[in-house]
Specification:
The chain is 38% helix and 27% strand. The protein is of the alpha/beta class. The chain has one domain. The protein has a seven-stranded mixed sheet. Strand 6, helix 3 and strand 7 form a beta-alpha-beta unit. The two termini are 15 Å apart.
């Protein structure tokens, strides 16, 4: 499994490097407001397998941003949409917990600019996933994270989807 993140320009970074790069980016303009989001999207492949892409997006509100992404080819089979979407959320939660932990470690060494943090889910009020919406949002909130769904879940529905 590839645990390395890619940048939008093709560089490869581990988790720690991603966190350091995000902090560096935010320190370039400390007068701005920042939002960091994590989202995962998936694509069902052959034999009920799936590829999962997770994106970490740092948005300099009103002035662009950067993102990092990674692809994981799941070894388990996913027979239902519910299983695959739940795995997307669990993947995002896993990355979010690691990310927050690394940010906390960095905050002990240096000043980390203030930011809002969200997990984006590829579900919405319409379509086949609407029956899962409350359950998945509840999973994220149970881990003390803010959840965003379609149409506001751009980390999953636009950025991760671009690489799936």
């Amino acid at each position: 499994m590839d645990k390395v993140f890619n940048t939008s320009v093709g560089l490869r970074m581990n988790h720690e490097q991603v966190v350091q790069e995000i902090i560096r980016f935010m320190k370039e303009d400390t007068q701005r407001q920042y939002k960091i989001t994590i989202g995962t999207d998936s694509l069902k492949t052959h034999d009920n397998l799936a590829d999962f892409v997770t994106a970490i997006v740092v948005h300099r509100v009103g002035n662009g941003g950067r993102y990092f992404w990674r692809r994981i080819e799941a070894m388990d089979k996913f027979y239902t949409l519910r299983d695959r979407i739940t795995h997307e959320v669990l993947t995002s939660l896993d990355i979010a917990q690691k990310f927050v932990s690394l940010m906390d470690e960095e905050a002990k060494k240096t000043v980390v600019p203030k930011f809002d943090f969200e997990i984006h889910i590829d579900v919405g009020e319409n379509g086949a996933t609407k029956v899962m919406l409350q359950e998945l949002v509840g999973m994220i909130r149970a881990h003390n994270f803010e959840a965003k769904t379609k149409p506001d879940s751009y980390a999953a529905t636009s950025v991760a989807d671009k690489h799936v």
